[in-house]
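Response to reviewer comment R2.3. The reviewers asked that we include at least one raw input/output pair. We reproduce the pair for Gfo/Idh/MocA family oxidoreductase here without editing.
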Amino acid sequence: MTEAPIRVGLMGLGRSGWNIHAAGLAELDQYQVVAAADPDPDRRTEAETRFGCTSYTDPEAFLANADVELAIVATPSHTHVPLGLAALAAGKHVVVEKPLAQTAAEVDTLTAAAEKAGRVLTCFQNNRFEPTFLAIRDVIDSGRLGELVLIRRAIHRYARRADWQTLRKFGGGELPNTASHFLDQLLLLIDDGPIELLADLRRTVSAGDAEDHAKLVLKPKSGPLVDLESSNVVAMPQPAWFVAGTTGTLTSTTDGLHVKWYDPTSVDELQPAEGAAPGRAYGTGEHIDWHEETITPEPATGKRTLLYYEHLARTIRHGADLYVTPDSVRRQIDIIERARQQTGLL
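Raw output as returned:
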């Protein structure tokens, strides 16, 4: 297999395309940026200067460049599907910024196009590599928390936004453009299968017509209830993570992750007493030998982007399993679509 750098073309040189994708790719020997497309001439000049690449004003000319092996779609959300399909039709491997699509049917269309073209299609869910999330998965996998009952994720801030993501015609909204990162994480912590959904999407303090407050409650057939809040209208944020199980609890603090648990083999099995409560008091009075630990994950830096692209390079060059499959993201898009149907914000 060739070890030559993967020749990359960037569509969109905005916040994500430039500050995240371009910045990450510049640090990796496995990639070479050979083309960029953006309607802004200053951004094109910046890309030409930094990478020595060819730049384009429109996607058609960009996709006609045979040097581009991998096309990265980092454009506004409503363009992800048409540009992704065009890139696949042009024979490119494709990375699509989140959200991958607006509907599950669109994900199916993209997946079919990738299979027909024989090319890799993936979505930029780099928060699967976020250090805090990985640390939480380790705690859950250790069994210390027992059987999980509740997972709560809160992304709180107060921000009166007025950019394009406040407009539904551009695919804007808190749910697909911000909360999708965290919904993606949460879905990896529960079993596959049917999920009951309660959704509350509201436009509160921002401009436009898209939601800036998203509340989702997910109830799988088995396993923990999942509670997600991603909001621009909370001036006093709550802990970002709260995970409760039958033998322990995890919560995020300013110091990191605090875990409190006990060994279930250290306590006696309880038997219900049908008579009057001794001393008119409830509870067993038993002593539980609790253990506590504070875990300090690495800061959430650009490393998660580097890890994402390192995995992708192994897929493209060596045939390794794709880390973020369209099928795994389809479940997330289905939840988003159902939430919008439920609240009338399609």
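The longest strand covers residues 148-156. The two ends are 45 Å apart (CA to CA). Further pairs are available on request from the corresponding author.
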